[in-house]
Write a structure and sequence with these properties.
Mean pLDDT: 82
Number of helices: 24
Helix content: over 70%
Protein name: ABC-2 type transport system permease protein
Shape: globular
Low-confidence stretches: none
Largest sheet: none
Radius of gyration: 24 Å
Order of helices and strands: HHHHHHHHHHHHHHHHHHHHHHHH
Keywords: Membrane, Transmembrane, Transmembrane helix
Strand content: under 5%
Number of strands: 0
Distance between the termini: 30 Å
């Protein structure tokens, strides 16, 4: 039997199992382009607006969050798209690739499901190759659909295809890194952590390299993220950086294959350290276990987002220099509104920080579902630990973690604003408006808890709600959404004391909704059966 026997059947199984995820990712990125392009197209009618944008992109803080800044001497719509979106699309698809690879390799071995599959006529490397085939197909589908959206908006076809394919290759590089990590460690969390650490290191190298020299320095080339950006689509297209991605992927796959052939099935090359025979005092409560499971993801999420918002805060000092062009541009006029542009800009960034904290809160809350599906919740509930205590422990840790991510972000933003030399808004004002988003975030966490408690299979719905909240927060004015559509988002009810007075009725209402949702979660979890393995 070949080591690849059964690969086709496993590909079909993965596609069927992850069909909703695949559709969401395949449509999500093209929709991102579709939502962002109107801003750049409208700017193309205003040369001063584009050049003001180019001046902002050349600033060190924006270079850290966008790209190397090529094409800014004569900024065009295509150059703006390539400079400002490639980084974030690569990060999104890299996360997708990492999660998919770990989910269908190391996580399957850890749960022992792959042992059942291997008992059939299935080769040793079939599962790894099958998930790679699916990840490649999804990235290519995203590339094709995204290129179609770009070409439909009058951007050059060849450059559009080059940019989207370069993004796909960069993302697949991190998928290959995840496959290597899955051979090293015995646990899915470890493989995911190693892969995300590699992604973070690549982001840091790209940032340091691009800030050293406009257009990128040699340090930038150490990062797979930079390979997609250095293709310089819409400015000076060159295909050869894509070859770096192809070579890296092939080398990583060969390494993963060699490691997989030499390790025991179900084990990793690095054995786990032996633990204590008895749990310490700090691990004798469900809340302590939940904290131990989430502490590292909380640390890196809070740190990464805080650094990003700190850099964003330093850009505020440049807003007055672009005030006239920003006010004349219809896109920025809709986003920033009337009044103090500096305060309006900071208010928008605080909103982005809250959205980032919301994504963390949903992931942390749905950790309970993963524990139940893995059978660990059943083992804990077989002890004197009650259902309410177990669920409550997870919700307390995820809620506090969400608050920490939010406050870390807004405090870092406030520090960046203060460092830029701007007197208003003050550090305290930025921190205050950030804290007002906490009730809205708890509504999202409570909704995730209620769905998990009553209908676990419906928990993906909470991500649709999150996506809708993001669209309303960022594009409600641009799309001319009616009032009732805006009110469906919990973030709409959050007051902005930087530009208006605090409406404590709204704050209290959001807090009440969060309490009701949490109560529904506890009631539902006590009533339904707990899944068993």
């Amino acid at each position: 039997m070949s080591t690849l026997t059964g690969t086709g059947s496993l590909v079909r199984f993965i596609v069927r199992r992850d069909r909703v995820r695949i559709v969401a990712w395949s449509l999500g990125i093209p929709l991102l382009y579709l939502a962002a392009l109107p801003e750049y197209v409208l700017m193309s009618d205003d040369a001063t607006g584009l050049q003001a944008r180019a001046a902002l992109v050349r600033s060190p803080a924006m270079v850290s969050m966008t790209g190397p800044g090529y094409g800014t001497d004569d900024y065009t719509v295509g150059a703006a798209v390539a400079n400002e979106l490639v980084l974030w699309v690569v990060l999104a698809l890299a996360v997708m690739s990492i999660l998919q690879v770990v989910r269908h390799t190391r996580a399957e071995e850890e749960s022992s499901r792959s042992e059942l599959v291997r008992a059939a006529v299935v080769g040793r490397h079939a599962a790894a190759v099958a998930v790679l085939v699916v990840v490649v197909l999804v990235n290519l589908l995203v590339a094709v659909l995204s290129a179609g959206v770009l070409v439909a908006n009058d951007l050059a076809a060849v450059d559009s295809v080059a940019m989207t394919l370069g993004i796909a290759l960069s993302a697949l590089t991190f998928g290959a890194i995840a496959l290597v990590a899955a051979q090293v460690t015995e646990h899915s969390r470890g493989a995911t952590g190693i892969s995300f650490a590699a992604l973070g290191a690549a982001f840091t190298l790209r940032t340091v390299g691009d800030m050293q020299e406009l257009g990128g320095s040699w340090v930038s080339w150490l990062s797979p993220i930079a390979w997609a950006q250095q293709m310089r689509s819409y400015v000076d297209l060159r295909w050869w950086p894509a070859a770096l991605g192809l070579v890296a992927i092939v080398v990583l796959l060969l390494v993963a294959s060699a490691l997989a052939s030499r390790r025991d099935f179900g084990g990793g090359l690095v054995a786990d350290r032996g633990g204590r025979a008895d749990a310490g005092a700090l691990l004798r409560a469900p809340s302590a276990v939940a904290w131990r499971q989430q502490r590292m993801s909380l640390l890196w999420t809070a740190l990464g987002l805080a650094l990003m918002w700190l850099a964003t805060g330093t850009v505020v000092a440049q807003i007055p220099q672009m005030a006239e062009s920003l006010e004349e541009n219809p896109v920025y006029a809709a986003l920033l509104g009337e009044g103090d542009l500096e305060k309006a800009f900071v208010g928008i960034v605080v909103l982005y920080a809250a959205l980032g904290a919301g994504a963390y809160g949903l992931v942390a809350t749905l950790r309970a579902k993963a524990e139940e599906e893995a059978g660990r919740a059943e083992q804990v509930l077989a002890t004197p630990v009650s259902r309410g205590r177990w669920l409550g422990a997870g919700l307390v840790v995820s809620s506090i973690g969400t608050a920490v991510v939010l406050l870390a972000g807004v405090l870092a933003l406030g520090a960046g604003v203060a460092a830029s030399g701007i007197a208003e808004p003050s550090f305290g004002a930025v921190a205050g408006v950030g804290a007002l988003y906490l009730p809205a975030l708890l509504v999202l966490v409570g909704l995730a808890a209620a769905l998990y408690a009553w209908v676990p299979g419906a928990t993906p719905f909470v991500w649709l709600v999150y996506g809708y909240t993001l669209v309303v927060a960022m594009f409600a004015d641009l799309f001319g959404l009616p009032e009732w559509a805006r009110q469906a988002s919990p973030f709409w009810w959050v007051p902005d004391p930087l530009t208006a007075d605090v409406d404590w009725v709204h704050v209290g209402g959001l807090s009440g909704v969060a309490v009701v949702l949490f109560a529904l979660g506890f009631a539902g979890f006590r009533r339904r059966d707990v899944a068993t393995r």
